[in-house]
Amino acid sequence: MSEEFTETTKISYWGNIKNSLSGLIFGIVLFLASFVVLWMNEGHNVTQLATANFVDKTAIEISAEKADRANDGKLIQVSGNATTNTTLTDKIISVPNTFVLKRNVEMYQWEEDIKTDTKDEMGGSTTETKTYSYEKVWSSHEIDSSNFKKQSYVNPPFTIKSETYYAEKGKLGDFKLTTKQTHAMNDYSEYENLPQKAEYKIYNNMYYKGSDPENPRIGDVRISYEVVPSGTDISIIGQQRPNNTITSMRHKDNMVYIQQSGDKTKDEMVYTFEKNNKFFTNLVRILGWFMMFLGLNTVISPLVVIFKVVPFVESIVGGLSKGVIFLITLALSLLTIAIAWFAYRPTLSIILLLVIGGIFFALKGKFKSAKENN
Q1: Is residue 331 packed enough to be buried (19+ CB in 10 Å), middle (13-18) or exposed (0-12)?
Q2: Residue 71 CB contacts under 8 Å (≥ 6 apart), including other chains
Q3: Where are the domains of the chain?
Q4: Which of 316, 317, 148, 179 is nearest to 247 (CA)?
C-alpha cells in the first residue's frame, strides 16, 4: 500500500518561456548528436555484415579435441564443452568448478514516484500539480532517499552489493580459454546449493537478512546466486594460435571474433550473429530518430509556449508542430541513413539508384503509352 501527498504550484507565462529556453541548448546538442548516432550505426552495420560474410567464406569448422598445428593462423570455428577447475568465492559462499559466480543483492527500500499534471490557464500561466507517492519495493540498486520530497522516508545504505566473479582460465577441448573468453560467458543458471550461514536465513533459495521474510521491513536484504558451471557449452570463431588459444583475427580495419553460448555449427553462429546485428541496427535507427525528434521538439518549444496565452490555440499549435516535426525528423533520419549507405557502400547504393531509376523510367513509359492509347 503506497502513501502519497500532492503539491500544487503556479508557473507564470514568463516562467514557462524561461523554462523552455533553458532546454534550448540541450535540444540543439541532442538534435546534432542524432546525426552522428545514425551515421556511425550504419558504418557499424556495414562492418558487421562484412564480418559475417568473411566468416562464412573463410572460417573452417574443426574439432576442439585436437589443435592441429596446420590450422595455426587460420580462422577456425570450434564448439563443445568448456571446463574449469576454478573455485569462485564472494566470502559468503564458495562454488567449485565454476566459470562465473554472480551475486544478486536486493534491499527492501522506499521508492518515490512523482506524477505531474499540468493545466494551462488563460494568460499563459500554468498550474502544476505534483503527486508524490511512496512505496516499499525490493530493489537491486541503492535508492537515494536524501532527495525525496518527504524526508520522513529514509533508506539505509547498502552494506553488501551485487557482484560478479570470473574464472581466469579454462579449457575447450585442447584449447585454452583466455580471460576475455571466460568473462564473455553468460549462460547463467540458478545456484541451488546454499550452505547454512549463521547471519542469514535461507528462504526460497535465497539468503535473507531480516526478522521475517513473509513480512519484510525497510533495510531487509535478500541474496541470490547465479552460476555458469564447468561443462557449459560454448562456440567460438577466431584465429588459432600456436599456444593453443583462439584470438581475434584482423580483417582489413576490423577485428573478427565471435563467441556464443551453446554447441553450434558455423552456419548457426553466422545466422545468430546476423540476426543480432539486424536487431541492434534497427534499434539504434529508432533511437537516432527519437533523439532527433526530441531535440527538434525541444528547440521549437519556446515558440509553442508563446501561444500559451490562449490554451486551446497552444494545443492546436503544439499538435501541429509535433506532426510537422515527426515528418521532418523521419525524412532527415532516412536521408542520413541513405547518405551513410552511399558513403559506406557506394557500389550497392549506385546499383539501387539505377534500379530505382529504371523503375521510374518504366512507369513513365507505361503512363506515356496509356496516354497515347487514350
Answers
A1: exposed
A2: 60, 62, 240
A3: 12-46+280-373, 60-264
A4: 179
Going by the DSSP 8-state scheme, the letter that residue 178 receives in this structure is P
Name the nearest CA neighbour of 328 among 304, 307, 300, 302. 300
Statement: residue 267 has pLDDT above 50 = yes
Q: Sorting pLDDT into bands at 50, 70 and 90, what band is 42?
A: very high
Report the distance separating Cα 26 and Cα 19, nearest Å: 12
Alpha-carbon distance 167 to 183, whole Å?
8
What is the chain's Cα-based Rg? Answer: 29
Confidence of residue 266 (pLDDT cuts 50, 70, 90): very high
Strand, coil or helix: 157: coil
> For the stretch 164-174, what's the b/e string if a residue is b when 16 or more beta carbons lie within 10 angstroms of its beta carbon?
ebbbeebbbbe
Residue 291's pLDDT is: 95
Confirm if 246 and 59 have CB atoms less than 8 A apart.
no
269 burial (CB, 10 Å; 0-12 / 13-18 / 19+) is buried
- Number of C-beta neighbours around residue 158 at 10 A: 18
The 8 Å CB, 24+ separation contacts for 6-10 are: 6/129, 6/130, 6/131, 6/132, 7/129, 7/130, 7/132, 7/149, 8/127, 8/128, 8/129, 8/130, 9/127, 9/128, 9/130, 10/125, 10/126, 10/127, 10/128
For the chain, percent of residues with pLDDT exceeding 70? 79
pTM of the model: 0.78
CA distance 165 to 161: 13
- Each residue's pLDDT tens digit, 113-131: 988 776 655 444 567 778 8
Mean pLDDT for the chain overall:
85
